[in-house]
Amino acid sequence: MRGEVLVLNQNYEPLNICRWQRAVTMLYLGKALPLAHDSREIHSPTTSIRLPTVVRLAEHVKRPLPQVKLSRSSIMARDAHTCQYCGKRTKPLTVDHVIPKERGGKHTWDNVVACCVRCNGKKGNRTPREAGMSLVRPPARPRFIPYLSYSTFTWALRNEAWRDYLEPFAPHLVPH
What we know:
Layout: E1 4-8, E2 14-19, H1 20-28, E3 32-43, E4 48-57, H2 72-78, E5 93-97, E6 112-116, H3 117-123, H4 150-156, H5 160-166
Parallel strand pairs: 1-4
Antiparallel strand pairs: 1-2, 3-4, 5-6
Helix pairs in contact: 2-4
């Protein structure tokens, strides 16, 4: 995650992840304040700047609240790349409809889970009860993550320098 900078709104909400060049430009123009630094520095003939890892905007930016989109990557992020039937982190993972679509199941957050190929074959076109299987945890729409996509947010939690700024927005997520 070298060279990437977490950008927070003035109220500390995560807004974006940008390259260090953009972050340094925002600092130089007075549009952002540094909150955490890298050990690396950049130099010019007259100045030296420690590279930021987290910046906070000087002024609050109002943006419309985004919706968490139902996608394969969001399902995998929500389920921590873990099969929701056997609990194993194996590859490849598929997306399974708990109630099969052919039996009236919808393609919604409450009916789609990450599933390993073995469990998907075992479950087939049946409900978990009919297949003698149970879910590790029931599927649900993830809690809203401000401005970052859900998969980007869960990925960003792995960065030790960013974790303190992100965890207040997702106390239920555990980085893997």
